[in-house]
Design brief:
The protein has about 550 residues and is α/β, with parallel strands linked by helices. It folds into three domains: about 25-125 and about 130-225, no CATH class; about 230-390, Rossmann fold (3-Layer(aba) Sandwich); about 420-545, Serine Threonine Protein Phosphatase 5, Tetratricopeptide repeat (Alpha Horseshoe). The chain contains 19 helices and 17 strands. The strands form six sheets. Strands 2-1-6-10 form a four-stranded parallel beta sheet, sandwiched between helices. Helix 4 (about 65-80) links the parallel strand 1 (about 55-60) and strand 2 (about 85-90). It is elongated.
Length: about 550
């Protein structure tokens, strides 16, 4: 992942920021209203009948049977009408040429939208149309969101010869490319004419609301694809999004820092730290790895509902373990220059394998984006936690369009659409066992607010009712923080006695071993370590116990 100065490219963007900073309170109120109306994209609105009332267009490839299967599965899940489906005659691979994009994807898609009254356009002056530019001027549009599905190409190749592209990159002129992620190009489908070479400034970067253009031309579209290694992964993405939309993200969150001394890469670590803090403010258990590498193979990563990290080319353990699986609705993203170089694979690069492991949403780079134009995870996390949909949060996090990032997941997916108390009510009404994760969030929020005793009492009450190991582990942690060490030892031992998986046993076991050794109870610690090694002798997590040294 390369870093570079961005000021010359984004001067227009900074001018816009100045204008936004001087907006009146009335204009800010309009922005908030626009956010409420446009970012949430509720299913009830999407389900309205008739093309005029539908702002979501699903794009499928007629030459890939699974593409139509994925599209119709999504239409049914979201209650979208058949009129929202655009079926195109496209190549079946992930890579297409710029000419094929123009002739077989962009122009037929625009024709579909015009024919079905989603947009109104007129032809531009032919003498003013540049190569590879659309000849149409948009006058009106009701389209807000495009959803390419499995089978639709992922990347547009550069028009230059590959050798010329490599030489240009070697000379430090990596921006002078016209290759792009298909989705990033589609975001500008209705935009005014723009230069396809290099990145194009995203006017919605770091915004809070989707402010539509009065003419329908200019404002970027939300584009997020339902794609991955196979059709089952796609269905899991759809189902997981609907699950977490009702119940919230249930589980633990994992953040991996690179901790490099290179100042050019500081931004990535800063984004991840800020993202961890933002989700912690929502009450989540956030685990931050400060080693230079990705979480080590022996790390007991369990109950994962979110992962942000970097920086290896191909997916590593613990994500490659056969028993590893993200929880429903999980969001996972790994910063790397080629994280989505091959999206429909299970073992190479990152985005595909993360989706294969059960993630419902991700992002990735189809080519070198440079760090400054990768998704800003600080912004993405904040907008997602504030109630934006996956598609909107991703769009707000991108400095550039017509560039290298592809977003995968249901663009309407909003895991924070409902506040925590409403999610708890849904979990109770439906008798879901995941309610212990919502209770854990509630405990963490109490602690952050300084209400420690109520948090302890709430933990004890729910443990008495359900025997929740998640809350019992949390209760032990709270005892440690308040120097109630003997009580903590009792709770940790209770979790170990009931733990059904090695990951939980090793995580809690290491914590208890460290506590015992800090109390100078070396004999008790050695005895416990022997017990754990005997009980879980075949576990790949056993080396994690070696970290439990003062």
């Amino acid at each position: 992942m390369s870093a570079m100065r961005l000021e010359p490219i984004f001067m227009d963007y900074f001018r816009q920021l100045f204008k936004i900073a001087s907006m009146s309170c009335f204009r800010q109120g309009l922005c908030i209203l626009a956010l409420a109306l446009s970012c949430a994209l509720p299913a009830s609105r999407a389900a309205a009948s008739g093309p005029e009332q539908t702002n979501v267009i699903v794009i499928a490839n007629q030459n890939v049977p699974a593409s139509l299967e994925a599209a119709r599965y999504y239409l049914a899940a979201r209650g979208l009408p058949e009129a929202s489906l655009c079926v195109l005659d496209l190549p079946s691979g992930e890579l297409i040429s710029r000419s094929i994009y123009d002739l077989k994807l962009r122009e037929p898609l625009l024709e579909f939208l015009r024919k079905n009254n989603f947009i109104e356009q007129k032809q531009r002056n032919p003498n003013e149309v540049q190569p590879h530019a659309s000849k149409w001027l948009t006058l009106r549009s009701s389209v807000q969101c495009l959803v390419p599905v499995y089978g639709v190409p992922v990347k547009i190749a550069d028009t230059k010869f590959p050798l010329a592209v490599k030489i240009s990159s070697a000379l430090g002129k990596g921006l002078y490319r016209d290759s792009a992620a298909v989705d990033s190009e589609l975001a500008l489908l209705l935009a005014a004419p723009y230069v396809i070479e290099g990145p194009h400034n995203n006017p919605l970067y770091d915004q809070y609301a989707l402010i539509p253009s009065p003419s329908g031309e200019g404002a970027p579209l939300l584009v997020s694809r339902l794609d991955g290694p196979d059709i089952e992964s796609v269905k899991n993405m759809i189902d997981g999004a609907l699950f977490a939309e009702r119940y919230g993200l249930c589980g633990r969150m994992y953040f991996d820092l690179q901790e490099t001394s290179d100042p050019l890469y500081y931004a990535g670590d800063h984004w991840i730290r800020e993202a961890s803090e933002r989700f912690a403010r929502e009450g989540y258990e956030c685990h931050l790895d400060r080693t230079a590498n990705v979480f080590p193979p022996e790390y007991p990563m369990t109950d994962a509902t979110l992962y942000f990290g970097w920086y290896t080319e191909h997916v590593t353990e613990p994500f490659t373990r056969k028993d590893f699986r993200f929880l429903p609705g999980a969001v996972a993203y790994h910063i790397h220059s080629a994280s989505a170089k091959m999206l429909r694979g299970r073992t190479r690069y990152w985005t595909g394998p993360l989706l294969a492991a059960g993630a419902a949403a991700s992002m990735g780079a189809v080519g070198e984006p440079y760090l400054g134009m990768s998704p800003n995870l600080d912004i993405f996390s904040d907008r997602l936690c504030s109630g934006s949909s996956m598609g909107a949060a991703a769009l707000f996090s991108l400095r550039a369009l017509s560039w290298q990032t592809t977003v995968t997941g249901d663009p309407l997916y909003a895991p924070f659409r409902y506040p925590l108390d409403v999610q708890i009510r849904h979990l109770q009404e439906d008798g879901r066992p995941e309610i212990e994760w919502a209770w854990l969030r509630k405990v963490n929020l109490m602690v952050r607010a300084g209400a420690l005793n109520p948090a302890l009492e709430f933990c004890r009450e729910k443990i008495a009712e359900t025997g929740s190991l998640v809350l019992r582990e949390k209760l032990a942690d709270l005892y440690v923080k308040n120097a109630l060490y003997n009580d903590a030892v009792d709770q940790y031992r209770a979790v170990l006695a009931a733990a059904a998986d090695a990951g939980t046993a090793m995580r809690v076991g290491a914590r208890l071993l460290l506590l015992l050794r800090l109390q100078n109870r070396a004999d008790a610690a050695d005895e416990l370590e022997n017990e754990l090694k005997q009980k879980w002798k075949d576990s790949p997590f056993l080396p994690w116990l070696d970290t439990a040294r003062p």
